[in-house]
Amino acid sequence: MTSRDAAKKRSLAYAHMRNCNLCPRMCGVNRYETTGMCLIGDKVKVNVIAPHFGEEPCIQGHNGSGAVFMSGCNLRCVFCQNYDISHRRNGMDLTPEELAEWYVKLQEVGRVHNINIVTPEHVVPQVALSILHARDLGLRLPIVYNTSSFDSLASLDLMDGLVDIYLADFKVWQAETSRRLLKADDYAATARESVRAMQAQVGDLCFTADGIAKKGLLVRHLAMPGREAEGAAIMRFLASNVSTDCFVNIMEQYRPDAHVGKKKRGRGGEGVRYDDLNRPVTDAEVSSIRKAAADAGLWRFNESPQHDGFVI
Ligand code: SF4
What we know:
10 helices, alpha/beta, single chain, 10-stranded mixed sheet, rSAM
């Protein structure tokens, strides 16, 4: 990126900070003075910065992924698997410049394979400024944008040229599910548009010679209890509208968390909340999504290879 392009990105990021419509919530607030729905102002709130070994093998590699967990979120998933970080907003406030110094520390001290910004959708201008500053400080690692896909095209445009790998969730398919479980009107409509824009920017996922992700799109879907039909619809969308070579991780580690399974309060308070989600997923549910993905023509999955050779 030329210094002229970098200056344009900086100026655009500052403009967005003063009138934030950078995610589908479209709050229109000046984040130097107040906060919108995400409740995060001009500084990012960061919960954990550390080498992380809970990602896909191609992302975490041998030394870990340099994870930066952002506090807060622009979604309100009732089953949030990261409730303490995303809903409670615990953490330390950092300026983009301080954040950039942490990226360099992860590179120099942690020897990680990438900088993995987890839940960045509501802090995109700050993240853009931090990456630009970190490049000036000598950051050479790929940047991973680890998102729920509840992004706007404007924010993805701001990240264009700054992100190497989009690690994108695709959570649910139906608008009704989105309203009930994510507290957003039509998450899937936004995610469809976002994932296509990410693919247009970085293409299919590609790797270094030793199997570490270098550039491209990786889509994750967390299988949910009783929602395998939505998972199957997402797989068909990826195959027909994104790429049959799309790298996909169908995840089976769902557990009841956040508001799921908590006692109902107030009048009519018998039983637990979101009872239909109050169990792990079954093998049959996960298998049916995997089958739908293969039937649709997808073939690059996050699975162990079937050979005895070296595997990271
Ligand atoms: S990033 Fe935050 S302030 Fe900006 S539009 Fe989204 S929720 Fe509102």
